[in-house]
Each structure stands twice: as structure tokens, then as C-alpha cells.
Amino acid sequence: MLQFVNFQKNYGNFAALKIDELQIGQGLYWLKGVNGSGKSTLLKSVAGMLSFNGDVLLDGNISVKKDAVNYRRLVSFAEAEPLFPEFLTGREMINLFAKARGAEAGQEELYIESMQMQHYVDRPIGSYSSGMNKKLSLLLAFLGRPRLILLDEPLITIDTESLLILYKWINERQEQEGTSFILSSHQALDREILPNAGELLIENQTLTHIL
Ligand SMILES: Nc1ncnc2c1ncn2[C@@H]1O[C@H](COP(=O)(O)OP(=O)(O)OP(=O)(O)O)[C@@H](O)[C@H]1O
């Protein structure tokens, strides 16, 4: 599903992350690593938001660099602490993302309802609490039919009820469409709900597949 080829991310002189060769098959992965190990750097690089040396390929031959438009339609990303333009409403952001991803009309409605966002989605984002903002960012990552969904710290900020809804979305997408997921989290994933989660570890500035 995902392949790293001579991947290296530097910030100035600091070599933050180096992955010579690694292939990760289809599935759901829990990305682990201590503070500052490089989890956000990895997710942002795979999302095509950071420049780096080497390449990342999706499904064998779709390069984040050489086939950027197609790649970015197939890989979505929700940031740990999302920031959106405060003057736009949640629905306006949803419409923008839905169009960019080629989502089918009305796909968002079930997500809005199940996450209990209908009472605020038409309000400007500047009026949202951090949990309301986080739920919007998670919904945006599910729009369209991405092959890979990257979620940076998805378990923080949202309440327990919303967390269960998020797990349900993940399971449904995996079962129905074979979508892959990489989730970074300092909290343990609920193994009863996500029994098949593999584990990726960032240690000593590199990534290994440990399970
Ligand atoms: N824009 C930047 N400029 C310079 N160094 C950076 C930049 N962003 C991240 N770093 C460095 O890269 C390393 C990895 O940071 P990153 O944010 O990816 O870690 P993380 O594993 O996501 O951390 P946390 O668990 O604390 O969120 C850290 O040493 C950090 O200081």
C-alpha cells in the first residue's frame, strides 16, 4: 500500500527522519514514538505537505512527487491541532474538500449526523470549541474515497461518545472499501474495537514496522 524509497526529511542541518526502504501493506496502523520522534513529520510528509528527499509511493506506482494531484486525492490527512479559516463555516469547508476529492453529493450528511455536528456545522469556524473543530477535521479526512487516511492524534480533544463514532467510521471504511489508516497516538488504541491494528514505531530517527 505504501512504500518509502530513500526517504529523508531534514529541518536545516537536523536529520529528523530517514527511511531507506520500507513497505507497508494494506491495513490499519498505530504510529508510536516519544515526543519529538517524528510522527507529525512522517504523517505530513506522507500527506504531501512537507518537502523531503526520496519518494513515497502509494499502491506501487503513485508517487507523492511525480503524480501529486492523483496521489493527494487518494491520501487524506487530519492534523493533530487543525486550524481552519475562522470566517468560513464548517459546511463551506466540507464543500471545498468534497469538491477537491471528487466526493459524491451528500456523502457528508451521514457523517455530520452521526458525529452530532448538525447544530453547528453552518456556523463560522471561529465560534467552534476545540472538540468541534477536531470533529470537523476528522470528517474532512473521510470525504471522497481515499485509499489511505492519516490521522494525527485523533483521540485527543474529542469526547468518549465521539471517539466511538470515529472507531465505527474507521471499521466501516476498512471493511467496506479496504481503506488503510495510519493513526498516531500517545494513548493506546482500543484493541477490542480495533483488533487488527498493526504497529509502526519511530525510534532513532527511523521508522520500523514492529507488528
Ligand atoms: N519546522 C521545524 N523546524 C525545525 N525542526 C522541526 C520542525 N518541525 C519539527 N521539528 C523537529 O523534528 C523532530 C520531530 O518533530 P515532530 O513534530 O514530527 O515529532 P512528533 O513525534 O510528532 O512529536 P509529539 O509527539 O511531541 O507531537 C523534533 O525534534 C522537532 O523539534
Classified in CATH, the superfamily is P-loop containing nucleotide triphosphate hydrolases
Q: Helix proportion of residues, in percent?
A: 25-40%
- Give the helices and strands as they follow along the chain: EEEHEEHEHHHEHEEE
Order of neighbouring strands in the sheet with most strands: 6-7-8-3-9-10
Bound molecule kinds, no repeats: adenosine-5'-triphosphate
Number of helices: 6
Can you tell me the CATH architecture?
A: 3-Layer(aba) Sandwich
Low-confidence stretches: none
**CATH secondary-structure class:** Alpha Beta
What fraction of residues sit in β-strands? 25-35%
Q: How far is it from the N-terminal to the C-terminal residue, by CA?
A: 16 Å
What is the CATH topology descriptor? Answer: Rossmann fold
Describe the protein's architecture and organization.
The chain is α/β, with parallel strands linked by helices and 211 residues long. It has one domain (2-209): 3-Layer(aba) Sandwich (Rossmann fold). Helix content is 31%, strand content 27%. The protein has six helices and ten strands, in the order βββαββαβαααβαβββ. It has helices at 39-46, 68-74, 90-101, 107-114, 130-142, 160-177, and strands spanning 2-11, 14-24, 28-32, 53-58, 62-63, 75-78, 148-152, 180-184, 198-203, 206-209. A six-stranded mixed sheet has the order 6-7-8-3-9-10, with helices on both faces. It is globular and about 45 Å long. It starts with a strand and ends with a strand. The model has no long low-confidence stretch (mean pLDDT 95). Adenosine-5'-triphosphate binds at residues 11, 14, 16, 33, 35-41.
